[in-house]
Amino acid sequence: MSMNYDFDKTINRRGMDSLKWNVGKDELPMWVADMDFQTAPEVMEAMRERLEHGVFGYTEVTDEWYNAYIGWWRDRHGFEMSRDWLIFCTGVIPSISSMVRKLATPNENVLIQTPVYNGFFGCIKNNGCRVLENPLVYENGSYSMDFEDLEKKLADPQTSLMILCNPHNPIGKIWDRDTLKHVGELAYKHHVTVISDEIHCDITEPGKEYVPFAAISDICRDISATCITPTKTFNLAGIHTAAVSVPDPYLRHKVWRALNTDEIAEPGCFATVAAISAFEKGADWLNELCAYVSENKKTAASYMKKEIPGIFAVESDATYLLWIDVSALPGDSSEIAGHIRESSGLYLSTGAVYGDAGKHFLRMNLACPKTICKEGLERLKKGIDTIIR
């Protein structure tokens, strides 16, 4: 496929207040989930135009914003949302935190499926609730849900909420329809509301498609609130723009109250512009991005197979993150990640932060130019060679 966008271009992010790149001068950060690519030129153009206007007053959520979300989910994911389902918010994690505060009371359980995005733990604990883990089953290099354990934990009257990760970060799995249907039925049976975090839904392997939780069945639709945003897809995390989609009017009122009470339901002046331009004009850029990231993942998996004995990449359908099994190496992932960083300068996420189920894994961010990907793999080999020796 001929490329119209340049993902090989290296952007120097040092000295730009980047969380990811705030590292030593000889270190290479491939940890936190933001990309080393510039966003789509179409998005930059729209933001430039807004910047040129020069007046940055209070901003409203416009019809265009609603239509952009509705159009993207309809055209890209085959799912029709109604305008009244959508509530603007400043980010996925602020909205999850807010919903935990509103929909669960202190000391109640919020269920998560580990290993899972570490931000969920904070959303739960910071609001005085208990983390209830339903660890995923890991067999022969792939993951599935443990439904027996899930039902037992959802049946606990103290469990009021479940946070679903769809597609699942850090393992990169797209949950299939039957799995999601089963989750919905169990949650409904035990009166548990589902918050579905679908932030990674757009970065999928070419030819693979995610299914929105709310699209599965009437039950899934009516018991859930879904967090969606262009920020992960288009590398806009610093813009603070997202939405929560809540089809059920009773649940929606509660969520709307939660987001407004916490003052996270009003856009900054670039928030709507970024989202509208991304969803209206970003599809071609995204298709090329997905193909590029897929190549990086293939490169990394085959390099590990050939050059780094004792570790392997878990096969993934989505995200630009590689989940690496290091269970054959001595020590847990925190020690291994620390050793790799010390000996090679490569900074990876340790799997331990995603719950106990992640303690023999590392997470590597491959949303970077091929040259950086290659350098990261060489550093990984160097770091692991010194462990094996």
Quick description:
The chain is an alpha/beta fold and 389 residues long. The protein has helices at 41-53, 63-77, 92-103, 119-125, 147-155, 177-189, 218-222, 231-234, 249-261, 271-281, 283-307, 333-344, 370-388, and strands spanning 28-29, 86-89, 109-112, 130-133, 137-139, 142-144, 159-165, 193-197, 224-228, 242-245, 312-313, 321-325, 346-347, 349-350, 361-365.
Task: Name a few traits of the molecule.
single chain, Aspartate Aminotransferase, domain 1, alpha/beta, 15% strand
Task: Describe this structure as you would to a colleague.
Helix content is 41%, strand content 15%. The protein is α/β, with parallel strands linked by helices and 389 residues long. The chain folds into two domains: 28-39 and 283-388, Alpha-Beta Complex (Aspartate Aminotransferase, domain 1); 44-281, Type I PLP-dependent aspartate aminotransferase-like (Major domain) (Aspartate Aminotransferase, domain 2, 3-Layer(aba) Sandwich). Strands 2-10-9-8-7-3-4 form a seven-stranded mixed β-sheet, with helices on both faces. The chain has a four-stranded antiparallel β-sheet with strand order 11-12-15-14, covered by helices on one side. It has a two-stranded parallel sheet with strand order 1-13. Helix 4 links the parallel strand 3 (109-112) and strand 4 (130-133). The model has no long low-confidence stretch (mean pLDDT 97).
